[in-house]
User: What shape does this take?
Amino acid sequence: MVRFGIYTDDFRFYYKAIKELKEWGLPFCSIDDISDIPVDIPVILSSSNDKAMDRFQIRENSPIRAIRKALPILAGKKQFSSLIIGMDPGPRPGVAILADLIITEANEMPDIHEAVMFIKNVLNDYSYKFFEIKIGNGDKPNRKKLISEISDLNLEYTIVNEKGTSGPHAIHNNALSAARITLVDNTKFRKYPDKPGVKRKNAIESEFRTIKILV
Assistant: This one.
């Protein structure tokens, strides 16, 4: 098991970093003495104004950007090979990030604009060699709005057949559909059976490898 380290003199960064790590469900440890860093901490998050250290350190003003940049380090690499973004169109679009076959983020966004801004930030924050955006072919009116905003950012995308990504109803949500869309290759379709005992909030972890396997 590994943990994130937090070393900073910036209280605002410290507070936000802890808040983000708790929301992501990632373990962490506050570092007071940089000469005595626990061996289970492969990466340290700091603000851009903090002192640089020899140990692998991510220095950013945005804690969420620092966390995203640190994720490949937890996987033992400098950057992800591929970043696949799945999008389930709708008034509250689902967006999921598949980084080297690991779902790192999956959310239902409040509206289309927020979903597109989320993607813009993801592409700026993550370290990767290649990215692909896959958009489900459902909900044509909202899909057209989504495509329009993505096109304004000059981002390429692929429309994929989202057949079979929305069930079963008991555990379905837009974030789960988006995660499933990351795997669609338009040549075959998967049927997702009912999973007795699996709750909606745990549906993604029951189907995918998530960042929790890294810690």
In short: The chain has a mean pLDDT of 89.
